Amino acid sequence: MRLRASDRLIEALNEQVGNEMYASMKYVSIATYFDSETLPTLARFFYRQSDEERVHAMKFVRFILELGGRVRVPAIPQPTTDFESAEHAVALALSSEERVTGQIQDLVRIAEEEQNFLARSFLNWFLDEQLEEEDSMESLLNTIRRAGSDRLLDVEAYLEREASATGTGTPVAE
């Protein structure tokens, strides 16, 4: 028996594919800002975030297909490309993560209203992920604020040390 979902849920999941792809593009935009400011560790952090968001979008795509739905990716708006400062760019990233958390919570509400326990289970992973994403972005924002705009190279060094300490090879902001 093939898994099923309502048209309403499939439509909402498709919308989330677009939201995740938009978040991915937003992070590319932030990464290129840091690249242009010769802050390669921050750039690498946001390129990695972009890749993660694309992976999230693809998880939704696969789930829609598993439910027997049709994937219909919505139009994706152009992200902001101008940032006043590193703090501004990361504050926008945090705001974006908070918005995505709300979007996932809306999906959970739909799944619960429809008693679609498979969708509810699928969405649990995203709820956990959003907690981690918001925490990471808030930590990075606080680190940048503490350092100040004239000490972003210290933020770069801090992120490199954290990456080495965790053994991930990628900067973390926790």
Supply the CATH architecture: Up-down Bundle
Largest sheet: none
- In the CATH hierarchy, the third-tier topology is known as Ferritin
For the termini, the CA-CA separation is 44 Å
Shape: elongated
CATH superfamily name?
Ferritin, core subunit, four-helix bundle
Provide the β-strand percentage band: under 5%
Number of structurally distinct domains: 1
Identify the CATH class. Mainly Alpha
The rounded Rg comes to: 18 Å
| Helix residue percentage | over 70%
Q: What is the count of β-strands?
A: 0
Please work out how many helical segments DSSP would assign: 5
Query: Structural class of the helix and strand makeup?
Result: mainly alpha
What average pLDDT do the residues reach?
Answer: 93
Elements, N to C (H/E): HHHHH
- Which spans of ≥5 residues are poorly predicted at pLDDT below 50? none
What does this structure look like?
The chain has 174 residues and is mainly alpha-helical. It has one domain (7-157): Ferritin, core subunit, four-helix bundle (Ferritin). The protein is 75% helix and 0% strand. The chain has 5 helices and no strands. The protein has helices spanning 7-36, 40-66, 86-113, 117-147, 152-166. Helix 1 runs antiparallel to helix 2 (40-66) and helix 3 (86-113) packs antiparallel against helix 4. The longest helix is centred in the last third of the chain and has 31 residues, at 117-147. It is elongated. The termini are far apart. The model has no long low-confidence stretch (mean pLDDT 93).
